[in-house]
Design brief:
By secondary structure, the protein is mostly beta strands. Helix content is about 0%, strand content about 40%.
Length: about 260
């Protein structure tokens, strides 16, 4: 747990167990070799604030069921596709994870997570390109996700846990679609739809916490499900294109709802 790994160009390491390392670097030119994740294996990077994995020439995470965990500041987590990805930063307010252009070794990358993505602790994700998550997205323990100018697609479920915040600071650009169910827990900071109209849900919404917005912030419900929970919802407006049973109070502050379904 106190060691780092240097993997030079032309060399390959396969992780076929549960491995732990401080960080992984390349040679003096900052160009590294290859790490390949085997199926169902786990690689934990304990100090990703130093170099993380961004110097690797290739981090192959295509095998089913494998998981990469970045502890601490995830700024230097390599921008690429993963199977399961975990950011776990419990100790410090770190730099954002930003999948936009950082340097020539870490360019802007539209990322796809084949399984689940979990953001734990004080990690702040700011999108610098599109994110597609084919499993679940879980934000908890003070995690923050800013969709910014780009598209966020979650094809399964979204859960906001303790202290989590979901928002879009660059309202008016990009779109954010959650194909499954969205749950806002009682201990979450909540979901700020801001002045953005590009939020859509394909499943149910359960609000046990806080959902707020301003201007013309809106949520579109495109599937079949319920809008319920222990807390009332107060947002500027909404659109229902699907079939929904409303089981809580919804107060709209700007416009009447648009009901197509």
């Amino acid at each position: 747990t106190n060691d780092f790994a240097e993997i030079d160009p032309g060399f390959s390491v396969t992780v076929d167990t549960n491995a732990i390392v401080q960080y992984i670097i390349g040679d003096v030119s900052n160009i590294g070799g290859t790490v390949t994740m085997a199926a169902n294996s786990t690689l934990e990077i304990l100090d990703s604030s130093v170099s993380g994995t961004y110097q690797l020439g290739l981090l192959d995470t295509s095998a089913p069921g494998n998981t990469v965990i970045y502890d601490g500041n995830p700024f230097y987590a390599k921008h690429q596709n993963y199977y399961n990805l975990i950011f776990n930063n419990a100790t410090t307010n770190a730099n954002d994870f930003y999948n936009g252009l950082v340097n020539s070794y870490d360019p802007s990358v539209a990322m796809t997570i084949a399984g689940d993505m979990t953001v734990i602790g004080k990690t702040k994700v700011q999108q610098g390109d599109d994110f597609t998550i084919l499993g679940n997205l879980v934000l908890s323990t003070n995690a923050q996700w800013d969709c910014s100018l780009f598209n966020l697609t979650v094809t399964s479920n979204l859960m906001l846990g303790a202290g989590a915040l979901l928002l879009d600071l660059a309202a008016g650009s990009g779109s954010n679609y959650f194909e499954g169910n969205v749950t806002v827990s009682a201990s979450a900071i909540g979901w700020n739809v801001s002045d953005a109209i590009e939020w859509a849900i394909g499943g149910s919404l359960t609000n046990n916490g806080t959902i707020v917005g301003k201007g013309y912030g809106s949520i579109t419900f495109d599937g079949v499900g319920n809008i319920a929970g222990s807390k009332a919802i107060k947002i500027p407006t909404l659109t229902i294109n699907g079939t929904y049973a409303i089981g809580t109070t919804i107060t709209l502050t700007t416009n009447a709802p648009t009901i197509n379904g």
